[in-house]
Amino acid sequence: MAKVMIVGAGGVGQVVAHKCAQVPEVFSEICLASRTLARCEKIAAQLPRPIRTAQVDADNVAEMVALLRDFQPEVLINVALPYQDLNLMEACLEAGVNYVDTANYEPPDVAHFEYSWQWAYHDRFREKGLLALLGSGFDPGVTNVFTAWALKKHFDTIQELDIIDANAGDHGQPFATNFNPEINIREVTANGKYYRDGKFVETKPMEISRIYDFPEGIGPKKIYLLWHEELESLVKFLRPHGLQQARFWMTFSDNYLKHLEVLQNVGMTRIDPVHFQGQDIIPLQFLKALLPDPASLGPLTKGKTCIGCHIKGRKDAKEREYYIYNICDHEECYREVQSQAISYTTGVPAMIGAMMIVTGTWEGHGVFNMEQFDPEPFMHKLNQYGLPWKEVFL
Ligand code: NDP
Q1: Which of 18, 20, 205, 251 satisfies CB 3.0 to 4.6 Å to 27 for a cystine?
Q2: Cis peptide leading into 140, omega within 30 of 0?
Q3: Is 138 a pocket residue for ligand 1 (Cβ < 6 Å)?
Q4: pLDDT tens figures, 332-374
């Protein structure tokens, strides 16, 4: 029995709150804290049991520490934005609370993310006897656990890893992003990057694409190579196990890419301030204010997501090709937690990550990525809490 504090009452925060509320035997008390109290209260009203809500600025360490000291949770689940990661880690250190997030730190004024800033906290978490679990969403998160599972159960060495993320859903909107528009657009307009033969190779945005045939009726879709944060930790993890190539791919519709191209061409995705009518505005933040709130897509989205790892390697001196994946149905998610599948596939692993910590299933002092722990208990919980997976040998 443990108290949990969820920070961030957006699309993902809503799912985390629902999923924690469904497991009272583990999460005895829940506090949902975010910048806008009304959003916390709206989510609280959907839940099967009462929770505490609070208004907080997660960037204000002193304010966060005071809230943590007052509520005294065992773990904080950060589903605010990547900009808050370091401040929330600071607050957890000061208040003696374990930490879980789903996206690595990104400075607001540079579209660049990497783990080094958060890995630098390892010794401080270790000295305090606390655990910080990084990237406990789907990708990163479950994809890291899938890879660790594949290595543990099915491979002696892994030569090639392709993480492939398909959203085969449709929300009927001319242009919308399935999670925070600012973070999503920063990610997809950045240069691509993949790992090949001991080094990272950079590409232009969307420069490399191919067709991938997805299972269970989704069928062939065009996938684009992106840089994604789990490649950084997974390359480190798999290098001693024979890794030659690691790539991340995502599907985008032609319609999405056309809108994005136009928005980029007219400067609406810029993240530097533009002086306009007496004040500085950041075009991408203004664009976010105009686009549909991802949480509003829940009732509109139909279809499925399919996220998995396609792996080539060797077992018992023989070559082996393997695919492990989850399929998640937008409408089923909405029926359960009033959110679409992108928020669902992120929020469920965030809850499970916190569960691994408070039940003592994953133990450690310091800062860890998902693949550093035994994947087995996490894999079982995915089946139990709404993200069943399948594996096939090709
Ligand atoms: P949203 O924009 O819907 O929600 C973010 C929430 O954080 C909002 O409620 C927002 O408040 C709140 N917030 C922002 N800044 C602060 C602050 N300073 N203090 C307190 N609260 C704050 O985003 P999503 O729910 O779509 O995404 C949440 C996180 O999940 C992101 O970090 C995203 O990158 C990550 N993610 C990870 C995935 C994975 O698979 N690993 C996949 C998808 C998302 P307000 O309501 O006032 O705006």
Answers
A1: 20
A2: yes
A3: yes
A4: 999 999 999 999 999 999 999 999 999 999 999 999 999 999 9
Helix (H, G, I), strand (E, B) or coil at 11: helix
Nearest atom within ligand 1 for CA of residue 138: 40
Cβ(101)–Cβ(16) below 8 Å: no
Amino acid of residue 366: G
What confidence tens digit (pLDDT) does each residue in 275-325 have? 999 999 999 999 999 999 888 888 999 999 999 999 999 999 999 999 999
Residue bearing the CA closest to ligand 1, atom 29? 79
Query: How far, in Å, CA of 88 to CA of 176, rounded?
Result: 28
For domain 142-341, the CATH architecture is 2-Layer Sandwich (3.30)
* Cβ–Cβ < 8 Å for 92, 132: yes
Tell if the pTM clears 0.90, that is, is over it.
Answer: yes
Q: How far is CA 66 from the centre of its chain?
A: 27
Cα(17) to ligand 1 centroid in Å equals 13
Q: Where are the domains of the chain?
A: 2-134, 142-341
* Ligand 1 atom at shortest distance from the alpha carbon of 294: 3
User: 351, 30 in Cβ contact below 8 A?
Assistant: no
Q: Which residues pair with 219 in a beta bridge?
A: 214
What spacing in Å lies between the alpha carbon of 235 and ligand 1's midpoint? 27
Name the token pair of 375: 């994947």
Closest C-alpha to ligand 1, atom 44:
179
